[in-house]
Specification:
single chain, mainly alpha, Growth Hormone, Chain: A, 16 helices
């Protein structure tokens, strides 16, 4: 199979430019994430504080992701992405300056992390919805998988580079590098000639009615709300493991920032493998099976990670954890985007962001405080148990769905309702 067929999204000029800019930006993001975790741990030496700071970073997604999705349906998505990246650049630059001036304290870290999360609440739905304008529906699934491969390729390199930079120069330089990396996305998006769908004049937007339209569509589709439910479980009890990696690197492995970077990079390597698999091979299999297989792989791997006491075993386990979660996430995102109608895409992706990033605060708090009280090992094992139960429950529902015809959800018709037109 030729590369053009295997990576169909790369046929599109706009997507190639976007891909390159985002890759540079995400390397900077992962450098900052590594530095931020290590900075918080240096300031507090507390798993609970790690959980609380992560909670504050994702709290805006819980509060504003649905609004962000509605905004992405209403306004020019390209301009939204430009604006959010400019704001993120300013926040990262301010973070670096505070550290250089030795003025950083834990409460200032909390404020900056919250502000960055607020920007993400509008950036993520806009970027997710913007993708279809660059590649069209035909190459949408491939574009989503390549996006994940790009993100996790950066996740493989960023933490490793970040750990070395922290050890050699300090955390401020990681924040500065991230600020500069946002320029890559800004320049890339500015060069894009997206094929935004024509938008008709509408009555003034009624936000609550807009959100109700999205919620009604989700309720009408067992597949959509079922996938969103699994995404919620994987967020709270799956992705939350990243919060306590600084404690694991310190207390279990006896390492420091370099070891933390290596652990995060191992997870990124596995995630990159899962994303490449999704972009090249996954189309031969049923997405529902890949969702469950990915979550099952993660469940078994996190159990191995919890019981590991050697760096090699921990690294292998983390790679498998990254592989499993990305197999799940890429295919859940693709399943949703392929199913939803264009005029509801931003709102449904807003709910997706709520279930994914918006529930991260809950996951961060629970694993941080459980690790504080019971230790890292028990916290990880409890999360693995809950993910395993979710896989079992979802498998039973899948069997039931096979035994009856699946009804197509009623997509909202392009008609005004209570003054809000859902026509795009």
């Amino acid at each position: 199979m030729s590369l053009a067929l295997r990576f169909g999204a790369l046929r599109h000029r706009d997507y190639r430019i976007f891909f390159a800019g985002q890759f540079v930006s995400f390397i900077g993001t992962w450098m900052q994430n590594t530095a931020q975790s290590w900075l918080v741990y240096e300031l507090t030496r507390s798993p609970a504080w790690l959980g609380l700071i992560s909670f504050l970073g994702f709290l805006p997604l819980s509060l504003f992701a649905l609004i962000g999705g509605s905004v992405a349906d209403r306004f020019n998505r390209r301009r939204l992405v430009l604006a959010t990246n400019a704001l993120a650049l300013i926040i990262a630059g301010l973070f670096a300056v505070l550290i250089w001036l030795h003025a950083v304290e834990i409460h200032l870290v909390a404020v900056l992390v919250f502000l960055n999360g607020l920007v993400n609440a509008f950036d993520i739905p806009a970027r997710q919805s913007f993708l279809v304008e660059m590649v069209g529906k035909e190459d949408l699934a491939n574009g989503i998988a390549l996006n994940s491969a790009m993100f996790n390729g950066a996740r493989m390199f960023g933490p490793a580079v970040g750990g070395l930079v922290i050890a050699a120069f300090g955390t401020a330089w990681c924040m500065a590098a991230n600020a500069l990396s946002f320029l890559a996305t800004i320049l890339a998006v500015a060069a894009i000639r997206s094929r935004a769908p024509a938008r008709q004049e509408k009555a003034p937007l009624r936000l609550l009615q807009s959100l109700r339209e999205g919620a009604a569509y989700i309720r009408s589709s067992q597949l959509v709300w079922g996938v969103l439910g699994l995404v919620a479980v994987s967020t709270v009890f799956g992705w939350s493991y990243t919060v306590i990696l600084p404690v694991y690197a310190d207390k279990i492995l006896g390492g420091g920032a370099v070891e933390l970077g290596q652990l995060l990079s191992a997870s990124g390597l596995g995630a990159l493998s899962g994303a490449v698999f999704s972009a090249t091979v996954a189309s031969r299999f049923r997405p529902r099976k890949i969702l469950l297989a990915g979550l099952l792989i993660f469940t078994l791997a996190i159990m191995g990670f919890a019981l590991s006491r050697q760096p090699l075993l921990a690294t292998i386990s983390l790679a498998l954890m990254g592989l499993g979660l990305i197999l799940f996430n890429v295919n859940s995102n693709s399943a949703l985007q392929q199913r939803v109608p264009d005029h509801l895409r931003g709102r449904v992706m807003g709910f997706y962001v709520l279930c994914f990033g918006g529930l991260m605060p809950l996951g961060s708090l629970q694993i941080g405080f459980v690790a504080e009280k019971l230790g890292v090992t028990l916290a990880l094992l409890l999360n693995a148990l809950i993910c395993g139960l979710a896989v079992f429950a979802a498998a039973r529902v899948l069997v039931q769905m096979r035994q009856r015809p699946v009804e197509e959800p009623a997509a909202a018709s392009p008609s005004p309702i209570n003054g809000f037109s859902i026509e795009r």
